[in-house]
Amino acid sequence: MPKAVVVGSGPNGLAAAVRLAQNGVEVTVLEAADRLGGGARTTEKLVEGTLHDECSAVHPTAVLSPYLRTLDLERYGLRWRHPEVMLAHPLDDGACAVLRGSAEETAAGLPAGDGERWSRVFGPLAAHIDTAASDLLGPLPRRPSHPVHLARFGLRAVPPAALMRKLWRSPATQSLFLGAAAHVMHDLRAPMTSSVAAMLIAAGHRFGWPVAEGGSQAITDALIALLHDLGGRTVTGKRVGSTSDLPEADVVLLDTSPGSAARILEGRLPKRVHRAYHRWRHGPAAFKVDFAVRGDVPWRTADCAAAGTVHLGGDPDEMLRTARDVHQGRMPDAPFVLVGQQYLADPVRSAGDVHPLWTYAHVPQGYDGDATTAIIGQIERFAPGFADRIVAFSAKNPADLARGNPNYVGGNILTGANDPFQLVFRPRLTPHPYDTGVPGVYLCSAATPPGAGVHGMSGYHAASRALRHLERR
Fold first, then answer.
1. Domain residues of the chain, as ranges?
2. Rounded to two decimals, what is the model's pTM?
3. Fold classification of 3-78+212-280+418-472 (topology level)
4. Which residues does UniProt assign to the signal peptide (predicted)?
5. Helix, strand, coil proportions of the chain in percent (round to 5)?
6. Which of 140-149, 173-182, 226-235, 314-323 has the lowest mean pLDDT?
């Protein structure tokens, strides 16, 4: 039986391990931390009984993932829970645009004149997103399986978000779109910055923006249980700094940043790959604050009170200005803040009337200040009295995030900058982005296509390359 070692136990590492084990490979997963899961972990902290997601929290790409959907993870306890409203984006004048379960429902709630255009833009994408997912969640420079659907998506994905927003007239609708686009964590005037918004909105209209019951850890636990059923092993507390730390194996998969992969493979990488991995760029960072809040957040608008996710970034001009400043290394006074109210769909995360609130702000790469007050200020801006409801909070700056997960270099939770080149050619210019150039060794982290998100597709594709290598031996 061939042997494989997977370094790193994030969703991609675990998906790669499952894929290999399904094909008769003896798999061992090595994790440096004392817990498995990478960005998909959940912790009980602040107040006994409150469950806080450590990084990933809302999972449109998980329910879209062509691979994860084949695994029947519900057999291992995974349950998806959906909020009444997927996403709300409030403005200072009291307007609030809302993303609902279908393009038509969303369009019906948008300001006059915007709904029809929204349906025309996102309705066809949502109708075919599950068919197109195999192309969208894989390396882009290849022959597509569904060229018409991919071309339709490309027309929405390639323009800068700053330009694409002009399809709609009202500031509320433009901000709703730009808030989704802001997940790219890049200057929204750049080409390709509409891509993440197109994906998240279309996936939401088709499958929703669900949370995992009991926290994102439930996704990790289900993958681990499946892997163990297939005969795979997991080892925690095992840091891999070089190939000498690896047990004997026929193939090795690295769920690491390109820089970490280069250090592990020092002296073995082809020069062109070594240069590319060391040139890999990391983008803006996150500053994360978990709150325990007594009672609900006192939002001004009822839509925010029902939303699983709330984007706080103000009007379109403010959104564009903030994204530009963070990209250029300047910390804005009022940063873009994402608020996760997972407990609305999943009440088991709360302790009585004390609820966990998940937040983070976009901040410059390596930011070493304290954004806690700025985050509280942004929430107070749209929910006066919020500060009075805080029971406890815990903040993590970019350095803290990087210590907790070495893939988050400088606090960049996307494992790489999403500039136009790296969005398409990640982690280097090659038709085989998962290959390291070292025979039998593959990169499977979010630095490879399709990028960040709990979808497991980077692991799936890298494992497929590894299986081809084993077949050729």
1. 3-78+212-280+418-472, 81-116+162-191+203-210+283-404
2. 0.95
3. FAD/NAD(P)-binding domain (3.50.50)
4. none
5. 40, 15, 40
6. 140-149
